[in-house]
């Protein structure tokens, strides 16, 4: 696929602080593995976008209110301070623990009905906020987490300012981070921060369309009881054994005022272009029925056939078509989520955003 010049004029919001997060692997099933959420992902995407003629713009710095519009204060404070507490406690130097990893979790089974409280030991605190062992924190993580949130917030601001589409190159990704917890290589929910910013700036209704190969459980939980933000996701079926395992089923449709504002379309492992695009089309039909003045596209490329983190088999051409379907709905702020095959990642991002541009052109013709 030729990508030269196809994205001229598209603002790409990027800050190199997003490279400072180096989780140095993940603890999976009790073993430290190399992990796939690496800084090279962002540089691969940036290289492809630049070659395609996109315009790189810096994010605006936002204060913590932009984060607290979506997340609990306790989570934000924890992410901002835990690495300093960890090093001050001597964990890297004296115990060889070079990254923050939780080890005890206040699950309902442990608490037995008692309220959770912040434990005294620094090494017991991460489990209060982090729900898995594969989302590590080290030097530079907080700076990257903040920069990624700023990129998403800025992409939303560009839409509010009249842009038809914008893309935030967020790293780390965000859609597994909920109001009070993080996991799945995500810390703060960049897409939710963007959606909330659009609402706060006056958009009556906003839709988040999540085409990452995994269910965006964090985004779903942020908006689950709200009617003003629709959340729709197509992803590999958690019932077939895939992360986030406990959430992402079709029966989850929202609660209270948000009833009917969540739509999950789980797909079987091995699903390819046709069924995946049909599902994306169904999400778009629901957004049209629900009404949306702006769309946040949670852009995960890990449904790609070559991706090591999911069993879906989607081509770059189908991602381009998905982008075009989404682009026809409303102005689009695309926010980077997963995608781990360094060889094809850039091509897939460019293909999707080219589709978004085409969809926007068709919608505004
Ligand atoms: Zn994913």
Describe the structure.
- This protein has 365 residues and is an alpha/beta fold.
- 37% of the residues lie in helices and 13% in strands.
- The protein is built from twelve helices and ten strands.
- Strands 4-1-5-10-9-6-7-8 form an eight-stranded parallel sheet, with helices on both faces. It has a two-stranded antiparallel ribbon with strand order 2-3.
- A hairpin with a 2-residue loop joins strand 2 and strand 3.
- The longest helix has 20 residues.
- The model has no long low-confidence stretch (mean pLDDT 97).
- Zinc ion (ZN) binds next to loops.
Mean pLDDT: 97
List each distinct ligand once.
zinc ion
Widest sheet: strand ordering: 4-1-5-10-9-6-7-8
Separate helix tally = 12
Number of strands: 10
What is the H/E order? Answer: EEEHEHHHHHHEHEHEEHEHEH
Could you give a short account of the major beta sheet? 8 strands, parallel
Helical fraction: 25-40%
Structural class estimated from helices and strands: alpha/beta
Distance between the termini: 26 Å
Determine the strand fraction and express it as a percent band: 5-15%
Rg: 19 Å
Task: Identify low-pLDDT runs.
Answer: none
Shape: globular
Tags for this entry?
single chain; 365 residues; alpha/beta; two-stranded antiparallel sheet; 12 helices; binds zinc ion
């Amino acid at each position: 696929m030729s990508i030269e010049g196809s994205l001229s004029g598209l603002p790409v919001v990027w800050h190199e602080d997003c490279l400072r997060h180096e989780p140095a692997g993940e603890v999976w099933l009790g073993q430290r593995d190399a992990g796939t959420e690496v800084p090279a992902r962002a540089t691969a995407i940036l290289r492809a976008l630049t070659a395609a003629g996109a315009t790189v713009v810096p994010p605006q710095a936002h204060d913590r209110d932009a984060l607290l519009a979506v997340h609990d204060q306790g989570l934000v404070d924890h992410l901002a301070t835990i690495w300093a507490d960890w090093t001050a406690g001597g964990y890297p130097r004296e115990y060889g623990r070079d990254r923050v990893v939780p080890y005890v979790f206040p699950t309902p089974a442990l608490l037995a009905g008692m309220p959770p409280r912040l434990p005294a030991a620094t090494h017991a605190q991460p489990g209060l906020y982090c729900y898995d062992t594969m989302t590590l924190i080290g030097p530079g993580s907080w700076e990257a987490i903040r920069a990624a949130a700023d990129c998403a917030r800025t992409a939303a601001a560009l839409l509010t300012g009249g842009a038809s589409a914008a893309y935030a190159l967020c790293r780390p990704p965000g859609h597994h981070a909920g109001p009070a917890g993080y996991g799945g290589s995500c810390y703060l929910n960049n897409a939710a921060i963007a959606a909330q910013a659009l609402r706060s700036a006056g958009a009556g209704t906003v839709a988040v369309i999540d085409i990452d190969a995994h269910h965006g459980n964090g985004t779903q939980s942020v908006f689950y009881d709200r009617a003003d933000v629709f959340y729709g996701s197509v992803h590999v079926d958690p019932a077939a054994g895939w992360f986030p395992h406990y959430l992402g089923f079709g029966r989850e449709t929202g609660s209270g005022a948000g009833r009917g504002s969540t739509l999950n379309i789980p797909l079987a492992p091995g699903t390819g272009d046709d069924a995946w695009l049909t599902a994306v089309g169904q999400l778009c039909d629901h957004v049209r029925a629900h009404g949306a003045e702006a769309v946040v596209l949670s852009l995960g490329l890990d449904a790609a056939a070559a991706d090591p983190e999911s069993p879906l088999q989607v081509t770059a051409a189908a991602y381009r078509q998905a982008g075009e379907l989404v682009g026809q709905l409303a102005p689009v702020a695309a926010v980077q989520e997963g995608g781990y095959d360094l060889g094809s990642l850039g091509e897939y991002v460019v293909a999707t955003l080219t589709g978004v541009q085409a969809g926007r052109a068709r919608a505004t013709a």
